[in-house]
Amino acid sequence: MKHSLGNLSWLMMLIALGSGCDSGYQEKNMEPRTTSEPTASSAPATVPHPEDTALHGGALMAPQDTAGSKENQEGVAHFEQGHWDAAQDHFLNALAVNPDLAEAHYNIALTLDKLGKHGEATEHFQVALDLAPNDPRIQDSSILKAHLGR
After folding, report:
1. Spatial contact of 107 and 91, defined as CB atoms under 8 Å apart
2. Do the Cβ atoms of 76 and 64 come closer than 8 Å?
3. What is the pLDDT of residues 4-34, one digit of tens each?
4. At what angle do helices 84-97 and 102-114 cross, to 10 degrees?
5. Quick check: pTM over 0.70?
6. What span, in angstroms and rounded, lies between the C-alpha atoms of 80 and 116?
7. Which domain holds residue 120?
8. Dihedral of the CA atoms 25, 30, 36, 42 (nearest 10)?
9. Please, are residues 61 and 50 in contact by the beta-carbon 8 Å criterion?
10. Which of 107, 141, 145, 137 is CA-nearest to residue 124?
11. How many domains does the chain divide into?
């Protein structure tokens, strides 16, 4: 009986993971973390800071006190789960509240790219860059550079 309960636990975990179950856990104010295991260069490995996610094609969080940031945050959560249509709706709502929210323009561009709407994505990437030309999360983004031919 003990063995079958163990198998049942694993089965339930697999079902939860496969169903797209979201625990709702969200780590706030994450800082880069290092591991204690040495790397080939004997320097500690780091986990990217959330602000670096643009360099890897991830959606951006906006400052919490900015108009539209709550809708943007909801969109980021959907984007990270691959719910492109829901993410798009939230990013558009964020832009309706604050048309100058560079992170929402960047995020809607990422989402439109995922949906195959490359022309619209390029327009939003350009707006994001125009609104935040000194934000390295945006200006150094490889997907933005590819869309804008830089």
Report:
1. yes
2. no
3. 444 444 444 434 444 343 433 333 333 333 3
4. 150
5. no
6. 17
7. 51-150
8. 140
9. yes
10. 107
11. 1
